[in-house]
Write a structure and sequence with these properties.
single chain, 73 residues, alpha+beta, two-stranded antiparallel ribbon, 2 helices, 2 strands, 14% strand, rod-shaped
């Protein structure tokens, strides 16, 4: 069973792809394959960030000094 990729792994792969595509020796065919992979990785990262944002809570102190959590969504 393949290991599920993490956000950090996907972001790292995007950086690798960027470096390869910037290389002028990369063929058009390889560039297109990498572009498709990058689009999938970007979608994964975007979805991951949106999910994390939905879970973020703002922690603040109330007037009485207690800590309260507020959901952003």
């Amino acid at each position: 069973m393949p290991k599920k990729k993490t956000f950090v792994q996907a972001l790292g792969r995007l950086e690798e792809i960027s470096s390869v595509v910037e290389d002028t020796k990369t063929s058009l065919e390889d560039s297109l394959k990498l572009y498709k992979e990058a689009a999938e990785l970007f979608a994964f990262c975007s979805t991951s960030l949106n999910a994390a944002e939905a879970e973020i809570a703002i922690i603040r102190r109330t007037a009485s000094g207690e800590i309260a959590k507020e959901s952003l969504m």
